[in-house]
Amino acid sequence: MTSAPSTPNSAPSADTPEPDVYPPNPAFAAAANAQPSLYDDAARDRLAFWETQAERLHWHEKWSDVLDWSGAPVAKWFVGGKLNVAYNCVDRHVLEGNGERVAIEFEGEPGDTRTLTYNDLLAEVSRAANAFTDLGLVAGDRVAVYMPMIPEAIVTMLACARLGLTHSVVFGGFSAGALRSRIDDAEAKLVVTVDGQWRRGKPAPLKSAVDEAVDGAESVENVLVVRRTGIDVEWTEGRDLCWHDTVDPASPEHTAQPFDSEHPLFILYTSGTTGKPKGIVHTTGGYLTQVSYTHHNVFDYKPDDVYWCTADIGWVTGHSYIVYGPLSNGVTQVVYEGTPNSPDEHRHFQIIEKYGVSIYYTAPTMVRTFMKWGRAIPDAHDLSSIRLLGSVGEPINPEAWRWYRDVIGGGTAPIVDTWWQTETGAIMISPLPGVTTTKPGSAMAPLPGISAKIVDDDGKDVGNGGSGYLVLDEPWPSMLRGIWGDMDRYRDTYWSRYAEQGWYFAGDGAKFDEDGALWVMGRVDDVMNVSGHRISTAEVESALVGHSGVAEAAVVGATDDTTGQGIVAFVILRQGVENTGDPLIAELRSQVSTDISPIAKPREIHIVPELPKTRSGKIMRRLLRDVAEGRELGDTSTLVDPGVFEAIRKA
Q1: Which residues belong to any copy of the AMP-binding enzyme C-terminal domain (predicted)?
Q2: Is 282 marked within a binding site?
Q3: Does residue 2 surpass a pLDDT of 60?
Q4: Does 589 show up as a binding residue in the annotation?
Q5: Could you tell me the domains of the chain?
Q6: Calpha distance 408→398 (Å, rounded)
């Protein structure tokens, strides 16, 4: 078990302009949800610790065993226990007398608002559950959700959880092709979407992408459409249904039934190094236990707080820290539909001011964007309600960390710099506010109940001051239970590198500093992290080669001051294809946007005569990354033609 790192012996001197460490505020620490004893409890008996966390939830039937790891690397947590996720997120708060508490303060991009109490949310989820049942859906069926950040999206997820339907949420920025591949892989029977979504003041169509995606999709029986923007859409009678005609008239009464702790709650697709997205499977009891526990302790949520996680439900952060973690704890939270600069760069700060947001959880990319806009914008607003800040999606650089604390957090708010993944389901490494002395840019230590190591290629601990690979050496409740329909890929992707030890390999490099604080260094595989979104090099290369003029492509992630990594592509054209310069590059970027998503568009595309390859034909992306970042080239001795870089530089 990895414990919290020790506090450095020496504090910074009084004249140090930027402290190296930030101890907890004593007043905050005294009232914090998490106390140092959590580490002691977890170290004393890890499984008993997780059993205690599970008891924070309502179980219809108690488990017989906390963990069954006999089928490793597939875990079973809270074996035999039964619960209903939606009941835990909605019903129990109403039954405890908190029905009039606000659950969701919705802020639409055009400025429209809705307030949903837990009573309202229960009625809406019950209506959707009854409507889904009337459509013939039964527990175990899959539902694809392709929606913007509106209340109906959250209602849909909860209604699926209530009925034991396994949902697959697809980010609304993905293309029709990406949606289709996910529908087919999961064999979704129902697709829930909207007519269009608001983007920077204008309605952008969404159902048209669904129409294209479901054309010929054998599994899809119905498409349920929320009227959000009022734009005209094509309509297929017998397949397409209007949410307002189907769900709104349904009964607001519904009795939740319990499901086994290992019943699949959702599938969420994430990029893989082969180019084919992986359907990550998360189940019910262990997942809800860990997201509820981490939300309570990492974010220190209190009943009078207003919480805002700026993620989208299309990503795991939206699942775990907008829907299931927060609602299981009875939060009042802000849900915002739009972009941070619509109608202008003041929007996020106006929302914080308007609703009195006290806990704000966003990505380093957003922080760096705010920095570029300048502090005059946040300084124009009263942000005094902020008492805790969070960071997610990628490592945050120390400069952005300090700016975030000083400008958004008033120089006092603690920052919880969280490391976790789609695959882990919930936060794994993070400071505990009120307990941890933090360092800007460091995730600090595994949470109580979580065990992690940093090891070398041979699996040996690197120790303080060492760097290597981040591994998880003990199972955890919210861990993925496999890749949908491909357990061999699951074992190969996550468990093969350290198969002898039985460790999960996270795909990230990390280091311990001399004090034992843990620093995550980023991806070491062929998956790029762009603004917190994981995009595989193979996916982008495949999209580029799909263009009729492209013979070969190589893609790398290069350091980017705003997005963390930027996508840089090197492309060889087919024989006889003219390099038209900017028009061709615009075509190629559009191809990637269409095939994958606008977020996957390369920052740079270089048309080159050849690519650096080894004698076995492997493209040396490491050297291309050196080129993309303007560094001196590394070892070129294994290349067939080391002179290739002269040709690349001249291109």
Answers
A1: 539-618
A2: no
A3: no
A4: no
A5: 26-84+283-523 (3.40.50.12780), 118-257 (3.40.50.980), 527-650 (3.30.300.30)
A6: 15
